[in-house]
Amino acid sequence: MKVLVAGGAGFIGNRVCEDLLAQAHHVVCVDNLVTGSIDNIERLSHLPTFEFRRQAAEDVEEASVDLIIHLASPASPIDFDRIPLEIIRANVLATWKLLEMATQSGAMFLFASSSEVYGEAEVHPQPEGYFGNVDPTGPRACYDESKRIGETLVATFVRKYGICARSIRIFNTYGPRMRPDDGRVVPEFITAALRGRPLMLHGGGLQTRSFCFVDDLVRGIIQVASDPRNAGEVFNLGNPTEVTIRHLAETVVQVTGSTSALVDQDRRPQDPTRRKPDITKVATRYGWQPAIGLEEGISRSVSWFSDTSMATPADSVHPA
Fold it and tell me: Has residue 313 got a pLDDT over 80?
């Protein structure tokens, strides 16, 4: 199969490219490197079945491919303030453009949505049938609502043109190759602990999240993306083990052997209180289950971050 991976130089995208290549597929990686890194795909550049195009997903040229995997949106909380319009463009304009390409070429299409579409969830855990509780004008809306529009576009193209397009809702994912300055809670905690700096717990760290190791997530992405029988469907992908942010901090301190203190701070505006995926659908359909627990995943991540330059200060934590 020939696969176009939009956002293929990002944290998740580069791993998707790598696994597809290992399965003998031809991969076209598209990334404008706004949040992705050329270092993530450098080891792939010599392969004859790998092609890199440095451009935004909404500017991608027509290509004859069998599958499009759209992972191009920035996802870090620090980006919600820094590049909100770029996020909206990636989830709306790029999704529209790539769906048109899929329609014209007869390709399958997968849109990477997010658990953020559930907002401050009033249903717990969150199943795919829950419509969410999201503020359309709040500080997170550029990401939350553009992901929802992306899902709407997918469903509309399926109904109007009959293409094989579907969405996945990705819950918190972590692992090696995350940027140390990513702004999400796992790299922030690990970099702070390795420096011996305090780990800041907004709202006392009582919020819950479900942390999925990147290897597990990528396996699920490719399983869903490769199935030609799931047009119009939505699948949660995440680890259903729910932990508090405080427990995560304690785990990071334990694994790193750090002396870092845990410091309580005020809760951030509209920071979701609880987040846990109901993965019954994907587990039943594909037998997909996360295999790597939190302590093992943090240990693997710490090993990578220990060998990575940490040039930016770790003094602010965004739980999601």
Answer: no
DSSP state of 126: B
Whether the CA torsion 80, 86, 89, 95 is positive or negative: it is negative
Q: What is the 3-state secondary structure (H, E, C) of 250-279?
A: HHHHHHHCCCCCEEEECCCCCCCCCCCECC
Instruction: Tell me what the pLDDT averaged over the chain comes to.
Output: 94
Mean pLDDT in residue range 171-183: 92
pLDDT, average across residues 88-98: 98
- Residue from 243, 202, 236, 201 nearest 221 by CA: 236
Answer whether the bond into residue 127 is a cis peptide, omega within 30°. Answer: no
> What is the β-pairing status of strands 67-70 and 50-53?
unpaired
pLDDT tens digit sequence for 265-274: 988 777 888 9
Architecture of domain 174-210+240-276+291-306: Alpha-Beta Complex (3.90)
Catalytic residue IDs: 143
Domain ranges of the chain: 2-171+213-237, 174-210+240-276+291-306
| CATH 2.40.340.10 for domain 2-171+213-237 | no
